């Protein structure tokens, strides 16, 4: 587990330098209206959000996927990594608009940064935030076109990212549908997780890394990736939902209780509603969807969740997902390089126990 963490940290350090260089060069490379003041500010906010933290696990998955095949330098990986993280920036900007979230990664969300700049022009702030997210999505695809790889590979990588982007939007739609169900069942929650995050955060980086390294992704190879990606994605979402209710703002960089205030039937909230009796459920539902829900009420709900064992259930579910993913990675040994397989086997449990 420690080795997986160390390798992931190395990928993050190297990528962050590359990401910073990308944004340094972007104003000169992007043809923008010369008299506009808003366009440079949009690029500044995208840069700020993109460089302001993030675990870069997608980047680690990408590079280690290529190492399943070879330790040689692989053309196209740098551009694929930029594409992955730009698509993530797009998702964060739009998620924060949908969720009306003031904080992201320890600072103001892009939407709230614009709201602060245009306090008397709500529609302008909203429009600029939407367009900032759109720009990040287009840049995500554009950067892949700059990869110095054969046209056939470039097309295949673009197809992976375009599919991932479209599926993520579909996931965001079903995410909103989930919140209109009183208590979503586990199967529905898993579906939301797969489309909203797993396919672009886990499956797409794995596919891109293997494609760049020259691996053909036939039916069995892709099935292996899916069997790994699904529990990794669910485990990651379980952890995010756990921290939203049981974590603290200093460690997460987001407001604690945000899911509760936004009315999101997350894994944590759904587990709490399912475990509660009618009286307890009424307490939770009185806070659910109230954007002005006070911290004292969030704490009351949190203590109720602890009494009902929701925290223990979520931790147990996270561990089961991690163990399932690690077991799947173990079956890769006859097919791919041992060193990289060991990384994928160790990473899920490392994420469960990390701070």
Topology at a glance:
Elements lengths: L1 H28 L8 H14 L5 H11 L9 H23 L3 E2 L2 E2 L1 H8 L4 H24 L5 H28 L7 H27 L6 H28 L2 H4 L5 H5 L4 H9 L2 H10 L7 H13 L2 H21 L7 H16 L2
Antiparallel strand pairs: 1-2
Helix pairs in contact: 1-2, 1-3, 1-16, 2-6, 3-4, 3-8, 3-16, 4-6, 4-7, 4-8, 5-6, 6-7, 7-8, 8-9, 9-15, 12-13, 12-15, 13-14, 15-16
H and E order:
HHHHEEHHHHHHHHHHHH
Q: Roughly what is the average pLDDT, rounded to an integer?
A: 91
CATH topology: Farnesyl Diphosphate Synthase
**How much of the polypeptide forms β-strand, as a percent range?**
under 5%
Oligomeric state of the chains present here? single chain
* The top level CATH class name: Mainly Alpha
Across the major sheet, the strand order is 1-2
CATH superfamily: Farnesyl Diphosphate Synthase
Q: Would you count the extended β strands for me? A: 2
Low-confidence stretches: none
Q: Can you tell me the overall shape? A: globular
Helix content: over 70%
Structural category: mainly alpha
Tally the helices: 16
Distance between the termini: 13 Å
The profile of the biggest β sheet is: 2 strands, antiparallel
What's the Cα radius of gyration? 21 Å
Number of domains: 1
CATH architecture verdict:
Orthogonal Bundle
Organism: Kitasatospora purpeofusca
Family: Belongs to the FPP/GGPP synthase family.
Cofactor: Mg(2+)
InterPro entries: Isoprenoid_synthase_dom_sf, Polyprenyl_synt, Polyprenyl_synt_CS
């Amino acid at each position: 587990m420690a080795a997986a963490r160390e390798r992931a940290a190395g990928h993050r350090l190297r990528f962050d330098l590359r990401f910073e260089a990308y944004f340094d060069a972007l104003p000169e490379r992007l043809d923008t209206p010369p008299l506009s003041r808003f366009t440079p500010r949009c690029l500044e906010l995208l840069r700020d959000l993109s460089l302001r933290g993030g675990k870069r696990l997608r980047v680690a998955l990408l590079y280690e996927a290529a190492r399943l095949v070879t330790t040689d330098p692989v053309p196209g990986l740098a551009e694929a990594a930029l594409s992955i993280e730009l698509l993530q920036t797009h998702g964060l900007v739009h998620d924060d608009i949908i969720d009306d979230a003031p904080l992201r990664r320890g600072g103001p969300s892009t939407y709230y940064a614009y709201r602060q700049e245009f306090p008397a022009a709500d529609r302008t702030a909203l429009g600029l935030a939407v367009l900032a997210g759109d720009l990040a999505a287009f840049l995500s695809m554009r950067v892949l076109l700059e990869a110095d790889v054969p046209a056939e590979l470039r097309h295949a990588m673009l197809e992976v990212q375009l599919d991932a982007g479209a599926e993520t939007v579909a996931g965001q739609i079903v995410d909103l549908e989930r919140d209109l169900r009183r208590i979503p069942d586990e199967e529905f929650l898993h579906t939301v997780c797969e489309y909203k995050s797993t396919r672009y955060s886990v499956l797409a980086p794995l596919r891109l890394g293997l494609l760049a390294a020259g691996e053909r992704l036939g039916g069995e190879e892709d099935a292996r990736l899916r069997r790994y990606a699904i529990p990794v994605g669910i485990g990651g979402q379980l952890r995010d939902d756990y921290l939203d209710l049981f974590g603290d703002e200093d460690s997460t960089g987001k407001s604690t209780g945000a899911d509760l205030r936004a009315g999101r039937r997350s894994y944590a909230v759904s587990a709490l509603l399912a475990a509660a009796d009618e009286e307890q459920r009424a307490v939770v539902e009185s806070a659910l969807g109230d954007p002005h829900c006070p911290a004292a009420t969030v704490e009351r709900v949190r203590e109720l969740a602890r009494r009902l064992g929701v925290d223990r259930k979520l931790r147990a579910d996270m561990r089961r997902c991690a163990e399932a993913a690690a077991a799947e990675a173990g079956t890769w040994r006859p097919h791919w390089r041992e060193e990289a397989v060991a990384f994928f086997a160790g990473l899920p449990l490392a994420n469960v126990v990390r701070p």
